[in-house]
Every structure is written in C-alpha cells, then in structure tokens.
Specification:
Elements: H1 3-25, H2 41-45, H3 54-60, H4 62-65, H5 73-79, E1 86-92, H6 102-113, E2 119-121, E3 134-138, E4 142-146, E5 162-166, E6 169-175, E7 199-205, E8 211-216, E9 228-234, E10 241-246, E11 252-255, E12 263-266, E13 275-280, E14 287-294, E15 299-305, H7 319-329, E16 333-337, H8 351-367, E17 373-376, E18 382-385, E19 388-391, H9 395-409, E20 412-414, H10 416-420, H11 426-431, H12 446-461
C-alpha cells in the first residue's frame, strides 16, 4: 500500500472533521466587517434532512414572495371609484375554465360598478358545456389555433389566445398509444408517467357552413340579455360576410371590412336580445377571434383559459393584435394566473420558466404601455407521498420564481399559495364542506373558485 498516495486524503478528512467541530462551537456573529453565519454540517447529514425543503424556501425568501400591488395603482384607483368603468383580461390555464374565479369576480364588480355582459367570448370552447354564465354552441368545422398547437404558427392568435378559421371540414384525432398524464392531473411521486401518446388525425369534409350560437344566461356572473354585441375578426376580403340572426329572427347578411388588422363589427340590437347566431362561409378563411357581450359602461372580466398552457411564448399574440384589441376594449388590468402546468415535484430550478415569463410580460408591456399587469402565483397542489397528500415539493420554488419575475418586471403580485394557507393547504380545500377542490388535489370546484375570487377581491380592495 502506498502511504504517500493515501496521506493527502487522510489530511483532508481530518481537516473536514475539525472544521465541522468548529462549526458547532463557533456561534453566529452579525457584524459589518466579517459576518459569520452559523454552519450546521452534521445536522445536514442526518437521515431525512433536506437543506432546501419548502419551509426553508418560504422562510428565507418571505420578503421576496410577499404579495405586492404597488405596480397596479392606476387600476386600484379606478376600483375604488364606483362610477368608473373597469375591464380586466384574465388569462389562465384550466384553473379558470368554465368562468371559475372570473365569474364571481365579474358578479361582484358589476354589483359595485354596474355593467351587463360577460365580455369577450371565443368562437369555440372545449368547456362550453361546463360554463354556466353563457350558453355557447358551435359547429365542428372550425380550425382552432392556440398556444397549444403549432399549426399555422405564423398566424397571430387573438386576444383570447385563439384564432378560429372557417373550414369545409373538421379534423378528428384518435390516440393510438396510452395518453401521457395531464400536467395538472393527480400525481403520485412513486409513479413514472407513461410515454406521450401518438395521434392519428383524420379530416372529414362537410356540406354546411361553420356557425356559432350564444344564449344569454341570467345567473350570477352572467347576463339575462345581450345589449352591446361586437364581433372581432381580421383578414377578410371585400366579398367577406357573416350571416346574423337575432333571437331566431330572419337571417341578415352583414359585410365584413377587408384588411389584416383587427376589425370590429357592431351587432348591437335596437332592444336587448337573448340569442345570437352567426354563420360564416366555409370557403372564406378569415380569422375570427370572438364576440364581446358588454355595455357602454360598467365592469367586465373577460375569461381567457387555455388548458395546459404555461404562460410562456405569449409572443404568438402579435403586438399589432394586442394593440388592436386594446383600441376597442380598453383593458385596465391584465391578469396572468399560470404555473401549474410547469410544476414538477423533481424540479427546484425554474430559471427557464423565469426567462420565459419575463419575455411574456415584456411583450405585453411593449404592446400595451401603461396597462398594469397582475401576476397570480401557482396555488398549492398535492401529490401522494407515503400514502398521504402533501404539497408538491417544487411549489414553493415555483412561487418564489414567480414573485421574482413580478418584482423585476414591475408587475403586481398576489401569492395565492400563501393566501390558501401555504404548505398542505390543498387537502383542507378538498375536505371543506362544500368541497373547494376536487379529488385530484389540483383543480378548484365552482364554490372553491368563488372562494378564491372573494380572497382576490378583498386583497385588491385592501380589506383582507
């Protein structure tokens, strides 16, 4: 055995032990010249210890992840004035599908500021049957472009995050392998997600024009009738048209304005109606964005959910489109509630997400200068660990990243994770009577969404 070879390793080991002992004996000393932070090497070597557990993240970064409204003061000023009109564009993922959170928020704001209508609604929606604040139906033969597909990615999306193109066909997809677990689905830390599904698409041609129909719903957050109706579109030709029927009356053909920019067609009736039906030519591939149901005054909260979306790559809504919609709708606040779709129990470093969200916010700020942005953090989400549901270990890291983005990009920030109660708050939401969250320990129920909306509004008004 070569002693000369092992001697350096023995010296290093003894030195490490000596430093560890001194770390225990030497107390922490806070001074301006040479501050000493107490070390805890041996404690960190104990079985089960985790130097970067969620609690320690929250404790160390409490000042960073605190909620902050200083950057949305222009909106807060209007919020405190009942005579002031308000319009909010509320973007999110499946957490706000079906007008969850936004429906209750709209109801409360219209109670104080007036208003009639649900705001901007897309042409099609995968959750139209779930939404109660407006009844919405449509034909199959629409091509739907969104953040979640790369088809025609050069085409700008509309303000809703979607662009719809009339077609004489529809596409049906069939999974030919087991589907990958949805990123917002319940997760067990002991499971490994199956491989991503492969899909086979089939095009089916039809002999009818694409249509969409909206029916008013006199429920909280909805409206019993339509008063001010506007269709938004672009890329029409001189020959482009839409067929309009109000309350089932005879169809009227309305010409569309040609051009590439965002265009508005006012469809407002002389008297309030309860039903609107629109029909487009299957052979005229104009870009249709949606229909707005509102009034000339009051408060409106536009619900823009996109299932599976992370919030990154917002540049697919081109700046000229953002500016075009702002010219017609005059938003006072942009809300971004994302994060759960990038959540992964094994991730602690969300720097890639930080870069992506900064680009998203910069893109919106460049297009809509002066319009405040409010970021809402990821909420608590539980995964099954050792037979019980606990906060996914990455959530505090994700929330800290989001708060840092808000701080650096000068947006408002509401820490929903903390507002819920922080770690392990989701099981309490699931157990609440009535349940505030589903058994997937991720999605809120309708009553849970109303509870979240109440907390948000209280926070915005400074009464929480």
């Amino acid at each position: 055995m070569n002693k000369a070879f092992f001697r350096p390793f023995i010296i290093i080991a003894l030195a490490a032990i000596l430093v560890g002992v001194l770390a225990i004996l030497i107390p922490a000393w806070d001074n301006k010249v040479l501050p000493i932070k107490k070390l805890s090497w041996f404690e960190q070597l104990k079985p089960g210890s985790d130097v970067s557990a969620p609690d320690s993240v929250l404790a160390e970064d409490a000042a960073i992840i605190a909620s902050d409204l200083v950057n949305i003061k222009p909106f807060l000023k209007k919020l405190k004035d009942p005579s002031s009109g308000l319009r909010i564009a509320y973007f999110g993922d499946s957490i706000i599908e079906g007008d969850l959170i936004t429906g209750k928020l709209r109801q409360e704001l219209q109670a104080s500021h007036g208003g009639n209508g649900v705001g901007l609604v897309p042409i099609t929606s995968i959750v139209s049957g779930f939404r109660q604040t407006i009844k919405h139906s449509f034909s199959k033969n629409w091509e739907s472009l969104s953040f979640m597909n790369n088809t025609n990615s050069a085409i700008s999306l509309g303000f809703t995050g979607f662009t719809f193109i009339p077609r004489n066909y529809y596409v049906a997809e069939k999974a030919i392998e087991p589907m990958k677990l949805d990123s917002l689905a319940i997760m067990d830390s002991s499971l490994v997600a199956p491989p991503k599904a492969k899909k086979q698409s089939t095009r089916y041609y039809v002999n009818y024009n694409p249509w969409v129909e909206y029916i008013a719903a006199g429920v909280p957050g909805g409206a019993a009738s339509f008063k001010h109706i506007r269709l938004f579109y672009s890329n029409a030709k001189d020959s482009s048209f839409v067929k309009v029927s109000l309350d089932g009356a005879a169809v009227e053909k309305r010409r569309l304005k040609s051009g590439a920019g965002v265009q508005e067609l006012d469809l407002s009736p002389a008297n309030p109606i309860k039903k609107l039906r629109l029909e487009f030519s299957a052979y005229d591939p104009i870009h249709v964005y949606g229909v707005s149901f509102d009034d000339n005054s009051g408060a409106y909260v536009d619900n823009f959910p996109i299932r599976g979306y992370s919030g990154m790559f917002f540049q697919r809504i081109h700046q000229d489109v953002l500016k075009g919609f702002q010219r017609y709708l005059n938003y006072d606040l942009i809300v971004l509630q994302y994060g759960e779709n990038v959540s992964n129990p094994k991730i602690k470093d969300y720097s890639y997400y930080e870069r992506g969200m900064k680009k998203t916010i910069a893109h919106i700020q460049d297009a809509l200068p002066g319009v405040p942005i409010l970021m809402i953090s990821a909420h608590d989400r539980s995964i099954k660990q050792n037979g019980a549901y606990h906060t996914s270990p990455d959530i505090p890291y994700l929330v800290t990243t989001q708060s840092r983005v808000a701080q650096e990009m000068k947006t408002g920030f509401w820490n929903l994770f903390a507002a819920m109660g922080g770690n392990d708050s989701m099981p309490k939401y699931v157990a609440n009577k009535p349940a505030w969250a589903g058994k997937d320990y991720t999605h809120f129920t309708r009553s849970g969404g109303e509870h979240i909306a109440g907390m948000l509004l209280a926070y915005l008004k400074g009464t929480d």
